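User: Show me an example of a complex going from sequences to C-alpha cells.

Assistant: Sure. Here are the input components:
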Amino acid sequence: MPKILINGKEIEFEKGMTVLQACELADVEIPRFCYHEKLSIAGNCRMCLVEMEKSPKPIASCAMPAAEGMNIKTNTPFVEKARKGVMEFLLANHPLDCPVCDQGGECDLQDQSLYYGVDKSRFVENKRDVKEKYMGPLIKTQMTRCIHCTRCIRFATEVAGVPEIGAIGRGENMEITTYLEKSMESELSANVIDLCPVGALTSKPYAFEARPWELKKTESIDVMDAVGSNIRVDTYNWEVKRILPRLNNEINEEWISDKTRYSCDGLLKQRLDVPYIKKENKLQKSSWDEAIALLVEKIQSFQPDEIAGHIGDMINMESAIGFKKLFNVFKSENLEFREKNFYVNSEEKINYIFNSSIAGIEESDLILLIGTNPRHEAAILNARIRKTFVNKKVPIFSIGDPGDLTYDYEIIGNRTDEIKKIINNEHEFTKKLLLAKKPIIIIGESALELKSGKYIFEKLKFFLIKNNLINENWNSLNILTQNASTVGLLDLKILNAETHNQFFINLKSKKFKLLYLLGSDNLDFKKDNEFVVYQGSHGDRGAELADIILPSATYTEQNGLYENLEGRLQECKKASYPIGESLEDWKIFNHIIKKLGYKDETSNFDQLRKEVLNNVSNFSNLNELPKIQEIKKNEIEADFISEEVGIRELDYYYTNSISRSSKTMSECRQIRQKTIKDGTNN
Amino acid sequence: MSVKKVHDDQPKEFKFSTENTKRVEEILKKYPDKNKKSAVMPLLYLAQKQNENWIPLAAMKYIANFLAMPYISVYEVATFYSMYNLAPVGKNFIQVCTTTPCLLRGADKIVKLCKEKISPNENEVSKKNNSSWMEVECLGACVSAPMIQINDDYYEDLDEKSTTEILESLINNKPLKPGSFRGRKNTSPEKIENINGGKHA
C-alpha cells in the first residue's frame, strides 16, 4: 500500500483516498464544513487547508487525492494562519446571533471558531441580508447564517434523489433555496438539518424548545417502520423533545426518515393516561381496579375460543410474549398480528426476513420489486437501493406500479401471470435473473396479500433454490415487511401455522365475543356486539372502538426488543416514563393474571426477555444478523390465480397511532396531498 | 446587484416557435445525447429571444422537461448569469456599462440621463417610452468608452449630447444607427501624431 507522511508520521493508505481521509487514519482531525463522508466532494468551504511540502500554497485536503510520498503538515503556523483567514471570511457575513440560534451548542462553526476564530472582526461593511426561505413544515431557515457549503444540495440530489434544492444567484448573492420555495418532496428531507454545519437549516418543530446540553440522550431503535433505524431519543424531563439518527452503516447509515424523526410530537398528544370504561355509550374515566375487574369478569363469562387478541404494529417482543402468556392462562389461542391477511410461511426464518440484508443491497447486480413501494414502506431501505442505483447503475425492475421511487426502474408487468412466466422460464426476464450473480428479489406485503400470494412466495422460493440463488453466500429472497413488530412476532410463533387464516375468518363471521387489541389500530374490522378491550398509548382508531381502555406506554417509555426486517434483534430503550397512570404492557398483563387468580403465572421483565431470547430462532447476537445454517428444499404446492398486482397505497405520514397524533405529520400530509391534487409536483 | 427576482405576472405556457424548434434541433446536434443538458444555456437564450427579451418560468420548466433536467438546475443557471432577464424589459433594452474604463470616461453621466429620460429606477419599464435600462459590468468595448448597448447593438464613444440624442431617438421611435458617435471607424486611432519617428494615437 502507498505511504504518506503526516506530521512526520508515516501512514499507509488505500489507493483513492483523499488527504483528509489519510489524515483521519493518522488520528489527525481536520476541520471541515463542506466535506461529508456520505456525500460527494465539493471543496468549497476551504476550512480543511493543510500544508503540503513543495506546494507554495496550502491545499484543500478534502479534494486532494493522497499520493505516494506526500509530506503533509497540519499543525504548523502556516496552516493555522490559512485556516484563520478562511474562518474570518466565513464569519464576515455570518450574523453573531448564537444566543438565539437553535444550532448553538452543536454548531460546527461555533466549535471551530473556538480554535480558528479571530477575536475581533475587521469587517466593517454591512452584513449580507438574505430573506428566509420556506422549505416546508420541517425545515426552519435563517439563510443569513448560511456559509454555502452545499451539503443540503448534495444530499437532496444524491441521497434523497429529489433534486429540489439549489443555489441561485452567484458570488456574494448566492442563496440556497428550493425551487420557488416549495417544500421538499422527500421522506428524508429533514436530514438536511443534521447535515447543515451552521444554524441556517434548523428543525422547525423543535425551534426554541431546548438546548442540546439540557437533554438526556438515550440510544434507541425506531419502530415507525420495519427497518429498525438506530436513533437517539433526546428527552427533557418526561417530554421527548427530538429524535436524531445514530450512525449504523448496516442499517440506516446516517439518515432517518421524516416520520421517524418528527412523529415524536405525537407522543405528547392524544395520550391515554387513565383507564376508561364505556358507560352509557360514553367512555368515562375509571380506575385500574375497576377496569381490570370488569375485564376479568368478561373474560370469565366467555368461552376461550370466543376470546381473541390482536397485536399492533409497534409492540415489542416482551409485551407480545407476555400477551401470549396471558392468553395461555385462559387457554385461548386466537392470536394474530397481521393487519391484512398476507401469506406467510413461518416454518423457517428465511421465509419472512430480508435475507440479502440492507447493506447487502449495495452488492447486488439486479433488483426485482414485486408488489412493493419501498419508498413509502421503508424509506431508508429505498435510499440504499437508490445509492446502489447511482453508484453501480444496477438495473431495477418492478411488477406492479409503485410510482416515483427516486430512481429509474422498468415495469415488466402488473399481473401475476408475469411471475408465473418468470418461474416457468417463459419470460425474457428469467434470462437476466439467471445471469445475475447477486440478484435481489423483494416481495412486498401487497403481493402476499393476493389470492395467489402463496403461489408467488412458494414457487418463487423454489425457483430460486433450484437455480442456486439461495445458498450459503447469497440469498436473493427478500420479504419487505411493513411493521416493526412483524418479524419478531413471527419468530415468537404468535401465529399458529395450522390455523393460518382462521383469525380473519372468525373475525368476519363474528365468532369472537371479546376482542383484545394490544396497541392495534390498523385492523380492518367493523364492531358489532363484540366487547373490545384496547390496551395502548394513544386515543386512536383502536380506542374509538373500545369498551375498556387500558393505558400503556409507548416505545420510548419502555424497554423492549424488536426484530427489524432483516431479522436483526435490537433493543429499544426506555427514554422517558409512562404518562399519568399508564403502565408498561407486561405490568398490565400481570395485574390481569393476578386478578384471574393465577398468581404463579406472573412473570417479571427479565423473565420475559429471557424467554424472548430463547424463542428467537437462528439468533446470533444482539444487533447482528441471524445465522442461517440450513435451508429446506421442499416444494410446496400452491394454486395460481391470474390477477392484478396492485400496490396498497400507504398514507406515508399516517401509518400508525403515534404519527396520526402528530401535528407535524398532519402538516406534511396536507402539503403532500395538496401537491398531488394541484399537480404542482415535479 | 442582488439575486434576480422572478416576475410576479407569469405567462402560463411557453413553447418554442416552429422556427426556433428547428434551431433547437441544430443546437442539440452539438452535444452527445447523454450530455444534452449542456444545451441549457443556448436554449435559455433562444427562449429569451423569442419571448421579448425575458425568460418566463414556463420557459424554464419547458426547457427542463425538454432536456430531462430538474427544474432547480435550470433555475440556477438562469439566475447565475446576468444576461438572462427574468422579468420583462422594454422593447428598447438599454444596458449601460459602468465598469472602470467607462466610468472614468463619464458613464455616470449616461446613467443620470437614463434616469431622467427613461425611468427613475433601473429595470423599470417606462410605459410611455417602452424602454428600460440597467447598469451592467464590462461589455468588452473599453476602447470606445463610454458605451451603451441597446438590444443587440453597441453605441460607442458617447458623451452627454450624443446620449441625449440616442435616448430621444428611441423615445420618438426613430432609433439612430449604432456605432461610434465620434465618427471613428472600427475603433481606429483618431489623431495620428509623429513622435520620435513612430506613429501614436
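The lines above are the inputs; the final block is the predicted structure for all two components together. The beta strands of chain B are 92-97, 131-136, 148-150, 153-156, 179-180, 193-195, 198-200.
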